[in-house]
Design brief:
The complex is a heterodimer of chains A (388) and B (378).
Chain A (H helix, E strand, L loop, with lengths): L11 H34 L29 H33 L5 H15 L3 H12 L10 E3 L3 E4 L2 E4 L1 E4 L3 H29 L5 H20 L3 E4 L2 E3 L2 E3 L2 E3 L1 H27 L3 H9 L4 H31 L11 H13 L2 H30 L5
Antiparallel strand pairs in A: 1-2, 2-3, 3-8, 4-5, 6-7
Helix pairs in contact in A: 2-7, 2-9, 2-10, 3-7, 4-7, 5-6, 7-9, 8-9, 9-11, 10-11
Chain B lengths: L18 H9 L3 H27 L7 H4 L18 H13 L7 H19 L6 H21 L14 H27 L4 H16 L2 H15 L8 H27 L2 H9 L4 H31 L3 H4 L4 H9 L8 H38 L1
Helix pairs in contact in B: 4-7, 4-14, 5-6, 7-8, 7-10, 7-12, 7-14, 8-10, 9-10, 10-12, 11-12, 12-15, 14-15
Classes of the chains: A alpha+beta (388), B mainly alpha (378).
């Protein structure tokens, strides 16, 4: 026991212990209070607790998914459908957001005032309006004013755009496709191996290798070979207007189109700001030093500027990716069947299993956040500047 | 590249001044730049004139005379479909957009609320006004209670249930409650997370990370669906209150992380100095650490609050008639079908102006704090 001059109730350790005991008491009491209430309420409503409802037949249709949905799909299967749809939206939107975001971000740094003005207007107007407004604007405003089925906008009779969505040709694999893919895969693996070898040799000996021409030649050769041996690998099935709808091809529903356009273009404004600050963070001395070494502009960008900018850009960028996944939940507003809309919406309402549905939904997003955050932390550790 | 001997390079040509060289330098310095200029100009020429034409030149603002003299209500038929925007639609719905379903006879209470809020905020942010402390006390201490009484009623005023609140009013209520309650709760959470008590630190960290890890909608779903289950049977919680619990929790968790960053940036010496002059925990935090931490995190806090104000639009998914939702209701008005673009543009404009003003204020505040710090250093 240490000697103290303070009274025992003023002792820091005692106080900390007391506060934490009270805290635990509160949490336990709260838990007890809430859970007894919940049990009473659920019994009154006649709703059982458990995960058994996942294997029950859901009995409601889901508009779209990358996987086939049987008529008697279970609630658990629809959960999977929701997760797949969430990832579909997220991945498409992330690609749009990254491409547009990098273009706009670099445009804001351009010396051309007109181009900068356009980019600044884009960023400043989108960052100050709610995403939900942007989504409903795209869905009820833009896509609702598309032409009807008969007056579809046609792009070379290959793509059709109308109120029912975007109709695309569907690729159908022909018999030789496996062999074709095999040859191409071998060629790509070879090129990757070559890239590794070239880099390592250049780092060790400084000798250069004509990588791009070799790689291009290899891929082209493989393509010609594969075509000669196996013939055309796939056949495109074009959508054709027959009766009251298009037959053949496949359709991207207007909900998905609106959601991807809105999410992608909205987050692009945020990514543009990250890209801009990434490039601004590179000291002027870096450009000058690289120039004085005699590097050309392209080489400076590739070897000096982009690697340093990426160190600043990637952490907020991955945070934006996480935001895209989270914000894809706004699909509820326009009825695209993703995770929240299917599971925390329809399944919850049909089964009344509020606790299980909300818990599973939150768990899913927590896992996604955890995965993306751990990637960011790993990247940060990897690219950290090693100081002496 | 060059010979080994010292060569004298020609001096760079002096930069020509004047309008034409400037134009050439900025717009046509190279082929690529020239192409960009042409493409940008083409894009502007393609977008701006039709937009201006739609929104202003050919737009319809004025009521027809018989509507003005009160003989009938305006309808969509008052807007000829000639390619101009129909702002009459907005004008006819303005009351609904601002007050929702708040009874017309009681709308003066909302107006009074907005006026009081404007006075409070104006006094707080105007540079020349003195006594900012009193404005702050009014705005954060008195005004919320006063506003609630005015809006809800009781004590001599007719009660207006929250189900009738709507429009911009509801957006301001949700945003305002989150802005007033979120930061203090967030600061407490940040202090809890940085606490030396392991149990407290773990509990707050778990709470913050869970709330930050899930989308706002799931939190709103949770408070909306699960709160009634958690409470004793028969205890009915107002939908607005359930939503507010979720939004405040969400704001607090985000602010907690911003503030934690600030707390970590304060050097250890500050903590130790505060302890060595005999301050207890709250003295150390309240008088020494937090003032410095909040100063450096102010931009981050403001940013969170600006984003939050936009996120209030999510309450429409729970079925509240906030500004965005009431505009969507207006868009479905059978007398005014086909004017949804006008509705969305108006909504975007209002949100944009509010967000823009908030970010301007934040930038100014940041600059002023920066100036203060430099002034003290000098």
């Amino acid at each position: 026991m240490e000697m103290t001059l303070t009274r025992w109730w003023n002792n820091k350790r005692f106080r900390h212990l007391l506060i934490q005991v009270i805290l635990v008491g509160f949490i336990l009491a709260g838990f007890f209070f809430f859970s007894t209430n919940t049990i009473v309420n659920l019994r009154r409503l006649g709703v059982p607790v458990g995960l058994d409802f996942l294997s029950n037949v859901a009995g409601f249709p889901v508009a779209t998914s990358l996987i086939p949905i049987p008529v008697d799909a279970s609630n658990g299967y629809l959960l999977l459908v929701g997760i797949i749809n969430t990832f579909t939206v997220s991945i498409i939107s992330v690609v749009i957001a990254t491409v547009v975001g990098f273009i706009v971000g670099i445009a804001r740094l351009s010396p051309n005032p007109l181009f900068t003005l356009l980019a600044t207007t884009y960023v400043e107007s989108l960052r100050n309006i709610p995403l939900l407004l942007f989504i409903v604007f795209w869905y009820f405003g833009v896509l609702a004013s598309l032409p009807a089925l008969r007056q579809s906008l046609s792009f070379g009779d290959v793509l059709f755009l109308n109120q029912r969505g975007l109709f695309l040709p569907r690729p159908i694999a022909l018999p030789g496709s496996t062999g074709f893919l095999l040859i191409m895969a071998i060629a790509i693996l070879g090129v990757i191996a070559l890239a590794v070898w070239v880099r390592r040799r250049q780092a060790l000996t400084g000798r250069l290798f004509p990588f791009w021409s070799t790689a291009g030649g290899t891929l082209l050769g493989a393509l010609v070979l594969a075509l000669l041996v196996f013939g055309r690998p796939l056949h495109l099935e074009y959508p054709q207007l027959q009766g009251f709808n298009f037959q053949g091809g496949f359709v991207i529903l207007p909900e998905l189109l609106a959601l991807c356009a809105a999410l992608g273009l909205y987050h692009a404004a945020y990514i543009a700001e990250n890209v801009r600050s990434g490039f601004l963070s590179i000291g002027k001395g870096q450009w000058e030093a690289a120039t004085s070494l005699g590097l050309r502009r392209g080489a400076i960008l590739r070897l000096i500027a982009i690697p340093q900018a990426m160190r600043v850009i990637v952490p907020p960028l991955s945070n934006q990716f996480l935001n895209v996944v989270k914000n894809s939940t706004l699909a509820v507003a326009i009825g695209y069947p993703e995770m929240v809309s299917i599971f925390a919406g329809t399944v919850l309402n049909q089964t009344g299993r509020a606790i299980e549905c909300i818990f599973i939904t939150m768990l899913f997003y927590l896992i996604v956040s955890l995965v993306i955050t751990s990637f960011t932390n790993w990247y940060n550790r990897r690219v950290q500047v090693v100081e002496r | 590249m060059s010979s080994a001997s010292v060569t004298t390079l020609p001096l760079p040509a002096p930069r020509k001044s004047g309008l034409l060289p400037w134009l050439r330098r900025r717009f046509f310095s190279s082929f690529g730049n020239g192409l960009l200029t042409v493409l940008s100009a083409a894009l502007l020429a393609w977008v701006i004139p039709p937009l201006v034409n739609w929104a202003f030149v050919q737009a319809h603002f004025a009521y027809p005379p018989d509507v003005l003299s009160g003989l009938r209500n305006p309808t969509g038929a008052d807007c000829p479909k000639d390619g101009g925007a129909c702002w009459i639609y907005i004008r006819a719905h303005l009351g609904q957009f601002f007050y929702g379903f708040y009874p017309s006879a009681e709308r003066w209470r909302v107006d009074l609320d907005f006026l009081l809020m404007a006075i409070g905020i104006g006094g707080l942010i105007a540079e020349r006004v003195r006594g900012k402390k009193y404005f702050a006390i009014f705005l954060f201490g008195i005004f919320p209670f006063l506003a609630f009484w005015l809006l809800y009623g009781g004590f001599g005023l007719r009660v207006v249930p929250t189900a009738q609140w709507g429009g911009l009013l509801l957006t301001f209520v949700v945003g305002g409650v989150a802005i007033v309650l979120g930061p203090p709760l967030g600061i407490l959470l940040a202090l809890g997370r940085r606490s030396s008590m392991p149990l407290l630190a773990t509990c707050t960290a778990v709470l913050i990370e869970i709330v930050r890890g899930v989308p706002l909608i799931t939190i709103l779903f949770m408070t909306n669906v699960m709160l009634p289950l958690f409470l004793p049977p028969g205890m009915n919680v107002d939908v607005l209150l359930r939503v507010l619990v979720g939004i405040v929790l969400f704001t607090a968790a985000y602010i907690a992380e911003v503030v934690r960053g600030g707390l970590q940036a304060i050097p250890r010496g500050q903590y130790e100095a505060a302890q060595s002059v005999g301050l207890n925990y709250w003295g150390m935090m309240g008088l020494v650490v937090l003032p410095q931490a909040l100063r450096i995190t102010l931009p981050g806090i403001m940013n969170t609050l600006i984003n939050l104000f936009q996120d209030t639009s999510l309450v429409s998914i729970i079925g509240l008639y906030d500004f965005l939702n009431i505009i969507r209701v207006g868009n479905k008005d059978p007398n005014w079908l086909g004017y949804q673009i006008e509705g969305f543009v108006f909504a975007g404009f209002v949100y944009w102006v509010i967000g823009f003003l908030m970010s301007r204020y934040s930038a100014r505040l940041e600059k002023r704090l920066d100036r203060d710090r430099h002034a003290r250093k000098a």
